[in-house]
Amino acid sequence: MSAPLKVGDNLPSGVTFSYIPYTPEKGDITSCGIPINYDASKEWADKKVVVFSVPGAFTPGCSAKHLPGFIENLSALKSKGVDVIACIAFNDAFVMSAWGKANNIKNDDILFLSDVGTTFSKKFDWTLGERTARYALIIDHGKIVYAEKEPGREVSVSSAEAVLAKL
Fold this sequence. Notes:
The chain contains six helices and nine strands, in the order ββαβααβαβαββββα. By secondary structure, it is of the alpha+beta class. It has one domain: Glutaredoxin (3-Layer(aba) Sandwich), CATH 3.40.30.10. The strands form two sheets. The protein has a seven-stranded mixed beta sheet. Strands 6-7 form a two-stranded antiparallel ribbon. β4 (84-89), α4 and β5 (111-114) form a beta-alpha-beta unit.
C-alpha cells in the first residue's frame, strides 16, 4: 500500500462512492432510487469540497452530535465558497440515502455517500476496523488542504465549526 494521503496531496484519480441522488418524487424515507457510482475525482476536480466522515449512519453520536452541526451551518459553509458538502460512512447507499431523508436533507445540500469497503478512508489509513473513522477534509480544486481525524470519540476537529474555522 502507498503512503496515506495527507494535507498537500492531490485527490487521487478513481475515487468513487456509491450514491443515491435525491429526487423529489422519492423524497420519503421509504422510497429509494438506484445507487450509482459517484466519481468524486471528476466531480470535485474544480470545486471546493467539505467531506466529513462518520462511523455509521443513524448511530447516536453521529446523529446527535456530528451531522446536526453541518445541517445548521449549511449557509455559513456555502458563504465561504464551499460547492459540495459530503458525508461519508461505511454504510451502503440505501442506508445513507435514508439517513439524509430522515434528516430532511433535500436537493443534495449534503451528499450522503457510501464508502464501500472503506476504500476511500483506507487511503488516509483512517478506519475503525470495518467502519469509517470520524474525520473531516477540505479539498480545494483537487488538493487536500485540511485533513483531521478525531483523536478519540468526541466531535472536535471534524465538526462543522472546526471546518468553518479552516475555510
